[in-house]
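mind reviewing this stuff:

——
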Amino acid sequence: MRRFAVFCVLTLLATGASALEFRSVGEAGAVMFDAPSQKAKPLFVVERGTPVEVVVSIEGWTKVRDVAGDLAWIEKSALGEKRMLIVTARSAEVRVQADSSAGIAFEAEKDVLLELIEPGPAGWAKVRHRDGQSGFVRGNQVWGL
C-alpha cells in the first residue's frame, strides 16, 4: 500500500499537478461560502473581476484561494471567462514593451484590477486597464498569473 501512495505522489508531481489555475469572478460578483452548498455559512462577497486560484472543483462548486490566501467555496457559475490580475505592488509600472527599459504606458496602484490579454515573455504579462490602456506588467507586481 505504501508503494502505491508513493507512486501516486510521484505521478502527480511528474504530470505537473503543481501548475496553478486562475479564474476570475464573473460580472455579478459572488458570495463565498465555508462549504460547497447554498445552505453553508456565507463568509463574504467578492467583487466582479476578482482573480482567484482554483484549488478543487466538485459538482457545481469550486474551492478557491484569494490574493490574501483565504480559502472559500464559490459556485462554478459565478466564475467568468475573462482573466483578471490584481496589482500587489504599491504601484505597478505598465510598460509599452516587455522590457524594464521600455517607456511607461501607465501606472496602476495596489489592488487595481487589470485584464490579462496574454502571458508575455518570461516574467511579463500583457494587460489592459478598464479605461482601455494596455501594456506589459512584470509578473512580480501582480497576482493571478
Remarks:
- Residues 1-16 have pLDDT under 50 and may be disordered.
- Residues 84-143 form a domain with the SH3 type barrels. fold (CATH 2.30.30.40).
